[in-house]
Amino acid sequence: MNILLIGSGGREHALAWKLAQSPSCTMLYAAPGNPGIAEEADCISLDVSDHSAVVDFCKAEAIGLVVIGPEAPLVDGLADSLSNADIPAFGPSAKAAQLEGSKGFTKDLCARANIPTGGYVRTTSLYDANKALTRFSAPYVLKADGLAAGKGVVIAATLEEAEAALSDMFGGQFGEAGAEVVIEEFLGGEEASFFAITDGTHVLPFGTAQDHKQVGEGDVGPNTGGMGAYSPAPVLTQGLQARVIEEIIQPTVDTMRAEGMPYSGVLYAGLMLTATGPQLIEYNCRFGDPECQVLMTRFEGDLAAVMLACAKGELASVEAGFAQETALTVVMCARGYPGTPEKGGRVDLGTSQEGGAKVFHAGTKLADGALVANGGRVLNVTASGANVTEAKAAAYEAVAKVDFVSGFYRSDIGWKEVAREAG
Ligand code: AMP
Ligand code: GLY
Question: What average pLDDT does range 374-401 have in this prediction?
Answer without folding.
Answer: 98
